[in-house]
Write a structure and sequence with these properties.
The protein is α/β, with parallel strands linked by helices. Helices cover about 45% and strands about 20% of the residues. The radius of gyration is 34 Å and the shape is elongated. The structure holds ligand C2E and calcium ion (CA) (2 copies). The site of one calcium ion has 4 residues, from β15.
């Protein structure tokens, strides 16, 4: 018997055994040993190959999975979607985009490792909600996507979204802390809304944004949304660039006119964005989008800075023109706002009483106790405050009484109909009475004709603002416009120094 070991890279892998009658010639022993050596190398290679394949497998997995949650990443979602959509045969395929509400606050409050733990649990629940043939992906941050196939119709997709929402509604237990979270889900469908994943993701993103804005929980995409939400990301990028190129951003000023005396009592600053390609973009199209990100903060600061510089200039020209600036709901959550406004007043050497901030009823009611804090801080500085779009929110008298606000702006949807709709007349009358009872003066927005202005005068409304009493205009046009169109009586009195 001849025995020859097969040496692998680090151990003997096997032995070669040859049987032979009688003594074995040395040549054959050599040949056998040579054979064993070759076999050893071959087996060793095979092992290495196996190991390499395993490593490659891990790398390939990592390339298309999210390392935190082990869900598919965007690339894998796109690949799977391409296959699913190509094979689609009469069935409906849905893309669900999920964004957790208030995740940033959770991260800030409990720390990142808590946030990571929460994301992992959300991921596990999502993966368990869909079938093995579906795909659950994490697209980044607290944004997840589900690709769901084999649906019958839109209602079927909505049921799936509702199931996801239900699964999230069970409290989460992370690091010994129990937490309730909510998510907003946008849904897009193939073939209804698109045939490729990029289109579907974009539609789902728009729907998700609407779901968040309206606190609807689940929103299915509707082509009508897009008129007001053009590609959100592109718009945000452009807006970021506009902030570096302030020539694109301008303020127009709309006169606020004393109803009884016909004089100018102040102006409202309204943001105008001249986009290099799209031309004029209305604030309604980008303020909400900017609010969804941190971009609203530099934007608000830019507006305040510009408006106060203008206020300084008017003062230097001997004009006392109070300026109202709109604050977004997000600004009420900005802890540095009060200090920032104090700095700007100092920088431009403008008295606080020249500045008025307009806050919508809805944004106050979103978090009344928080708003109360911020508004008292601002009022303590001497800044004036208004409640904007009054009538569209659901504020209670109890709260209104607590706010250091001296102006109520009745939303234009009520004002525009007061001559034709008796319900609206009653509404506006009672809002004016309410304001007066609370010691506020009342502004009517959207005054578009003489008849409306006369009706407002009869109802005892204090101030009018609208295309009839004066459209928004550049600062340079204001003085001549006022001289030509408004009474010289009743202008804002300069307060005693
Ligand atoms: P808002 O505060 O209610 O501002 C009044 C809006 O009504 C302005 O639209 C103005 O141009 C428009 N308007 C004025 N007179 C009339 C009228 O007679 N009839 C009608 N139908 N509309 C009239 P604009 O400038 O498009 O602004 C829309 C909204 O965007 C504003 O509503 C405000 O909420 C927001 N916004 C504008 N500028 C800023 C800003 O600098 N910061 C923030 N956060 N929001 C802003
Ligand atoms: Ca306003
Ligand atoms: Ca308003």
């Amino acid at each position: 018997v001849v025995v020859a070991p097969l040496h692998g890279p680090d151990a003997v892998l096997a032995v070669l055994v040859a049987e032979h009658d009688g003594p074995v010639p040395a040549r054959q022993v050599e040949a056998l040993e040579l054979l064993a050596a070759h076999a050893g190398v071959a087996v060793g290679n095979a092992r290495l190959h196996e190991q390499r394949r395993a490593i490659e497998g891990v790398l390939a997995h990592q390339a298309v999975h999210d390392s935190l949650t082990e869900l598919a990443n965007r690339r894998l979602l796109q690949d799977r979607a391409a296959d699913v959509l190509a094979e689609r045969d009469g069935e409906t395929v849905a893309v669900l985009l999920l964004d957790l509400d208030g995740f940033k606050e959770i991260n800030d409050t409990f720390g990142h490792s808590y946030g990571d733990g929460l994301l992992r649990q959300v991921a596990a629940r999502l993966a368990a909600t869909v079938r093995a043939t579906d795909t659950a992906a994490r697209l980044g941050g607290d944004e997840f996507a589900l690709l769901v196939r084999g649906l019958q119709d839109r209602a079927d997709a909505e049921r799936t979204a509702a199931r996801v929402q239900q699964v999230l509604q069970q409290p989460f237990l992370v690091d010994g802390i129990t937490l309730d979270i909510e998510g907003s889900i946008g849904v897009a469908l193939a073939p209804d809304h698109g045939h490729d994943i990029d289109t579907l993701l974009r539609c789902a993103d728009v729907a998700m944004y609407i779901a968040k804005r309206d606190r609807a929980g689940i929103t299915v995409y509707d082509p009508g949304f897009d008129q007001h939400t053009p590609d959100r990301l592109a718009l945000l990028g452009d807006l970021r660039r506009a902030l570096d190129d302030p020539a694109q951003l301008q303020l127009h000023y709309q006169p606020k006119v004393d109803v009884a005396l016909g004089g100018l009592v102040g102006v409202e600053a309204l943001l105008r964005w001249r986009h290099p390609e799209r031309g004029m973009v209305a604030p309604a199209e980008f303020i909400g989008t900017a609010e969804g990100t941190g971009l609203i903060h530099p934007l608000t600061r830019h507006v305040l800075d510009t408006a106060l510089a203008q206020g300084r200039q008017w003062q230097d020209e001997g004009q006392w023109v109070p300026i109202a600036v709109n604050l977004s709901a997000r600004s009420l959550l900005d802890v540095s706002l009060t200090g920032h406004i104090a700095d700007l007043l100092l920088k431009h050497q403008v008295p606080a009483a020249l500045l008025r901030l307009e806050i919508t009823e809805t944004s106050i009611m979103a978090d009344p106790s928080r708003a109360l804090d911020v508004l008292h801080g601002l009022a303590a500085q001497g800044v004036r405050l208004s409640i904007d779009d009054f009538g569209t929110g659901y504020s209670s008298m109890n709260y209104l009484r607590l706010f250091p606000v001296d102006e109520l702006k009745v939303d234009r949807t009520f004002v525009s109909q007061i001559c034709t709709d008796s319900n609206d007349t009653v509404m506006v009358r009672s809002m004016i009475e309410l304001g007066h009872n609370l010691g506020m003066h009342v502004v009517a927005e959207g005054v578009e004709d003489q008849a409306t202005l006369s009706a407002l005068a009869e109802l005892g409304c204090d101030i009018a603002q609208g295309s009839f009493t004066g459209p928004p205009m550049p600062a340079t046009d204001l003085a001549s416009w006022v001289a030509e169109n408004l009474s010289r009586r009743g202008g804002a009195a300069q307060p005693a120094a």
